């Protein structure tokens, strides 16, 4: 187990102190793991206090929601373990005034017991306290009654709406009514792609196969309601949303808010894909999504996965969601937009030009096929000192070059410019720009030429080489593609008088030797330079890629 902690037993305290150091509006109680917002010194000036919390490991919940307009205090227990009643009572004493306090509690046994006991103790001290349970996990709809479901990410909507109601000066009864109505209006369901590791356990809570998922799980690293095969995001979204909509009885044309919540280990890229699929599904079913948020709101440590929450809206709840808050983890305003895809400007077409030279078309076809065939080899080579994506880049380049070859028109300069254009669009990383600039420079050198002599091609080759040097700043010996290209260009020029076949064969052989020489070179450019001597012992992947297309040109 690897986690960025100091002493594991101090983790919760260390986390709260770190958060307080980043948030001037946050305070931490001296003797309890409680984060509190700044409140008026005179108790009679305080609005209804909102207090929530539970086990840690759900960050940014719950301390991230402490601030004017949301929670007055958050009580943090050990990871996935309820805080003590004494800690909850300390929070109540710290922030509640004569208007009282509302405890917002996720429906887990430990939380119900400890928050409930604290409420009783506070009432005995004369502090008005009420408790609202959130039980929004619709995945348990066929397992337990609604009041026995788990409280999960929908709790965040309850925090926000109840917090805005309290900030408006409402009474305790009014805040309780808003919180309970919201708790009844939310439904959540999650899918997990893998487990998390609780620090105290030191190992995953369950195991999943490469193509398996857990559907309908909570926020404590537990298994889901069912296990099934991995599916495209859109299919998972449809399963989850259809379950929530059916459970809440949401009808067409109703207004809802959507929360796309990462469980801790899901990249923003994937959350954005899920968000787009969710918005599409809801719109297809004529459900009016008027607010939506995506990100980590209530996590399960580093679990990969996502939950979706819908909250049925009326005017009051919508206004409360839109109300200002100082809570750092609430990212507003949740505006939803119609996706606009506008046409991109395109380069001029060459439909009016004659078909390209068949020999050039054949050469391009060979290059394209060779690049596709080399995907596995180059991916493996690139994984030694890079991220392993060169093979995929070459495969995309090969497909694009073959497409150009099938419809190639015009002279060699036009054809090379066409190849340059597609490579810069479809090939990422450094390969695309380098080859695009090289081909563009070569095309300018050959502009207006029809029958290209090998000596003229040699000049274009040298110009292409210089373009790569100008763009990247590398030179031979830096362990880059230039270590194959430079000797290849020299060999081509030296053998140009013998004709194309001899020139390309000599260039390919020289490139292969140059690529092999990179095995003992310490990288000085590109991502491989970060590895230093650890890159030694294997040839540079970019140089190997150069050999692939040169051999194809050699036939």
TrEMBL record:
One GO term (biological process): glycerol catabolic process
Keyword Kinase: yes
Domain DhaK as annotated: residue spans: 7-330
EC number annotated for this UniProt entry: 2.7.1.29
Keywords of this entry: ATP-binding, Kinase, Nucleotide-binding, Transferase
Domain DhaL: 358-555
Presence of the UniProt keyword ATP-binding in the record: yes
GO molecular function, one term: ATP binding
Listed InterPro entries: DhaK_dom, DhaL_dom, DhaL_dom_sf, Dihydroxyacetone_Kinase
Highest taxon of source: Bacteria
SMART domains assigned: Dak2
Gene Ontology CC terms, in alphabetical order: cytosol
NCBIfam families named in the record: PRK14479.1
The protein, known as: Dihydroxyacetone kinase
UniProt lineage: Bacteria, Pseudomonadati, Pseudomonadota, Alphaproteobacteria, Acetobacterales
């Amino acid at each position: 187990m690897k986690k960025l902690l100091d002493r594991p037993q101090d983790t919760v305290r260390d986390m709260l102190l770190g958060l307080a150091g980043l948030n001037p509006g946050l305070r931490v109680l001296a003797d309890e793991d409680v984060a509190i917002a700044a409140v008026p010194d005179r108790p009679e000036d305080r609005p209804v206090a909102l207090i929530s919390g539970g086990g840690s490991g759900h960050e940014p919940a719950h301390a991230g929601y402490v601030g004017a307009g949301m929670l007055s205090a958050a009580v943090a227990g050990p990871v996935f373990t309820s805080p003590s009643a004494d800690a909850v009572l300390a929070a109540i004493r710290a922030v509640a005034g004569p208007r009282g306090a509302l405890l917002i509690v996720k429906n887990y046994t430990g939380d119900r017991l400890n928050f409930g006991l604290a409420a009783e103790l506070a009432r005995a001290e004369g502090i008005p306290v009420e408790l609202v349970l959130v039980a929004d996990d619709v995945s348990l709809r066929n397992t337990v009654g609604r009041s026995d479901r788990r409280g999960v990410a929908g709790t965040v909507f309850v925090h926000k709406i109840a917090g805005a109601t309290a900030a408006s000066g409402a009474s305790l009864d009014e805040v309780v009514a808003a919180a309970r109505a919201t708790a009844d209006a939310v439904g959540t369901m999650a899918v997990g792609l893998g487990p998390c590791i609780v620090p105290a356990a030191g190992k995953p809570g369950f195991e999943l196969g490469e193509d398996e998922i857990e559907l309908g799980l909570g926020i404590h690293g537990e298994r889901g309601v069912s296990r099934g095969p991995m599916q495209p995001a859109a299919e998972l979204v449809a399963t989850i949303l259809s379950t929530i909509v059916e459970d809440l009885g949401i009808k067409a044309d109703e207004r809802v808010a959507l929360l796309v919540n990462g469980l801790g280990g899901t990249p923003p890229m994937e959350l954005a894909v899920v968000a787009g699929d969710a918005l599409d599904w809801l719109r297809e079913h004529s459900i009016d999504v008027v607010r939506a948020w995506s990100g980590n709101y209530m996590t399960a440590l580093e679990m990969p996965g996502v939950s979706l929450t819908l909250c049925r809206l009326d005017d009051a709840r919508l206004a409360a969601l839109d109300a200002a808050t100082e809570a750092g983890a609430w990212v507003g305003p949740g505006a939803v937009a119609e996706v606009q895809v506008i046409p991109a400007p395109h380069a001029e077409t060459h439909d009016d030009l004659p078909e390209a030279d068949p020999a050039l078309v054949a050469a391009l076809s060979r290059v394209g096929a060779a690049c596709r065939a080399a995907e596995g080899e180059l991916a493996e080579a690139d994984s030694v000192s890079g991220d392993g994506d060169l093979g995929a880049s070459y495969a995309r380049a090969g497909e694009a070059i073959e497409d150009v070859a099938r419809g190639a028109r015009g002279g060699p300069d036009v054809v090379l410019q066409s190849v340059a254009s597609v490579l810069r669009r479809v090939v990422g990383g450094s390969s695309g720009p380098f080859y695009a600039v090289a081909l563009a420079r070569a095309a300018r050198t050959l502009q207006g030429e029809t029958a290209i002599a090998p000596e003229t091609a040699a000049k274009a080759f040298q110009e292409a080489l210089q373009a790569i040097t100008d763009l990247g700043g590398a030179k031979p010996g830096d362990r880059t593609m230039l270590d194959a290209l430079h000797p290849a260009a020299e060999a081509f020029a030296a053998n140009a008088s013998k004709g194309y076949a001899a020139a390309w064969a000599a260039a390919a052989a020289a490139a292969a030797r140059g690529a092999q020489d990179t095995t003992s070179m310490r990288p000085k450019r590109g991502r491989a330079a970060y590895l230093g001597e650890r890159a030694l012992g294997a040839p540079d992947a970019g140089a190997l890629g150069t050999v692939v297309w040169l051999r194809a040109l050699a036939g």
